[in-house]
Amino acid sequence: MTRALMERLPFEDIIYFGDTARVPYGVKSVATIEQFAQQIVDFLLQHEVKLMVIACNTIAAVAAQKIRNRLDLPVVDVIGAGARNAVATTRNGAIGVIATPTTVNSNAYARGVHALDATMRVYSQACPLLVPLVEEGWLDHPVTRMTVQEYLRPVLAEEVDTLVLGCTHYPLLKPLLAQEAGPNIRLVDSATSVAEEVAAVLHDRQIAAPVKQSADYRYYVTDIPLRFQSTGERFLGRSLQKLEMVQL
Amino acid sequence: MTRALMERLPFEDIIYFGDTARVPYGVKSVATIEQFAQQIVDFLLQHEVKLMVIACNTIAAVAAQKIRNRLDLPVVDVIGAGARNAVATTRNGAIGVIATPTTVNSNAYARGVHALDATMRVYSQACPLLVPLVEEGWLDHPVTRMTVQEYLRPVLAEEVDTLVLGCTHYPLLKPLLAQEAGPNIRLVDSATSVAEEVAAVLHDRQIAAPVKQSADYRYYVTDIPLRFQSTGERFLGRSLQKLEMVQL
Q: Does residue A64 sit in the same domain as residue A131?
């Protein structure tokens, strides 16, 4: 997600916040996620941001509206962007969504898709093991393949032609997911949609950054666990400089 | 663990604290775990406990000494108990330990075993996927079996005759682990060892509860996630009454 933003908007400064001390969010209750999201928003507001991206699907699923109501800034959320992308992608009107349990339980993707086109059919599948498998680095491992087969079985049975990767961890599994979904299903990775939407909003509001030498990237996390550096760099495809640990 | 304590010490009141909003601990940094552990100890002290059990292997691995130094109470920790049990169990002096990454990284089991007998050999294997697999409820699933095979391979190659289940989630995988470890390896589940040690300490200090009608059990958690009730009851083998959500 951050990588897609950097590539699409090379002149924008980016402040990344990762609540590494309390992840994963996808299995927590709505009340707890709302409370944690509030704390994160408070932290980011101290940095005078001009636009906020809710990159975590689980936070977007349960707290996007509350965050929007609170803020004067434009807020782009990954589920809104993913829903638009899915509706634009599908040919047969049957969309599959794989996501964390809390995202699936919130029904947020179905609501997002139906707000755009009420005739669409949406099939969601909770995949609680995919985040741990990505964290373990088993991106192309027989265990991951078998797990994906099990999770995709009921979704494929619904003959979807589009599959939304409804969690920021899942794009790392794209090759494996594409193989198991088969050639007739298009994968929707929300990162590109989010970057496009951010670009459009910045342009519309005339708040895009001017062309400059280089942008400033800062990374704040609540914990620096054992394998953070390697996992983080795998996501970003670049080295993590200006990484700071903070307490909320 | 709580179940073993209830069975061994039926007259003792038990206050259980589960930091469900911030689990899993096994992949967090030492600094963060120490800080979280401190908050939990503060909470439990408000309830005038007479003895504290560190039931989480990861907390025991990195914070047991600090907690002991701070408290006037007896503290029983799962790693000390597990190490004693392993040393008493092994015949060939080769002990395997499966645990979370942070527990393995701390080397706490090896230190615990070597403090008792410096001639023992200890082989530890981090198993980050086993907690998520238990949480998913895949206790006897081909994916879990394949994952266990992969994690156990290097440990079995060391010809251990004893395998310590170094995480409170793992006893739920006991049947599968026993099959994959084979008939020549004994599994050490620290729950029973902890309960025995607690009983001994209560007796030695003459602070055991008198015989009474029934004991009082209270459960405090920081989040009540979607599947908490079912997972919790699977662990305890009893229904969860007096469950309260608190903020630290």
A: no
